[in-house]
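TL;DR need structure tokens for one chain.
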Amino acid sequence: MFKINNLSGANVHKNNFIEWMGQQIKTLPDSKHRMKKHEIYLEMRSRICLLDYRPGTRLNERELASEFGISRTPMRDVLRKLEHNGLISSQHGHGTIVTSFDLKSMRDIYLVRMSLMDALGDSTPTMTDAGTVSELRYLESQCETLLKDNDKREFAKVLMHLHKILHGLTSNHVLKEINDTLFYQSVRFWFQLLDRVDMRIQVEDLKDEIIMLRRSLDIGDVKLTASIHKAYLRMVVSRLDSIQKEGGILF
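>> reply
TL;DR here they are.
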């Protein structure tokens, strides 16, 4: 249950957030709703990113098609898209397998994502409203819960929600597509990273970032927002470099 009372700010912020949550609930699948291909893709992507399907897991096209109540042809299209975005691979004689990842590739992805934040700051921004600020307040409250629970899965969900907010700040579709692909290729590595670092520090850093992002969007400065997120990405790269210097193997 979401505790709206945890959100501070004007009532209009709460109302916007409640309206946003209602829209999200409408998109959730139920037993009477046959999911479209894009919805199935998003569900599959979420399962991979939250390690419901761990690296090396074999995916059976027929079983998945049966689960989602569709024929194998649209299911095959979903798997092709997941493969195009680097989340699974089709290997002759081995079937469809969830891809693995390594420290160097994660570092490279984060460096590119840093550059994309420069592009985000220079792009034509979309209009933000009180609902966006309320979403960030909600994520702040989620970080407070994480400081008590140390739940890695929920930490990943906060990252994914934050990405969705940042993803919506630009009207540049090419930038959005590249940034979206790289984010979902890299989000899985947090499950491994949090085993090597103090999770409380990571959550506190994330909460601090969200607060600064909220303040920058409150004044309508998307360029500043992008710079703040770039600094956070740089901090992650620095931590990866520190692990590497210590001779650690993260994955």
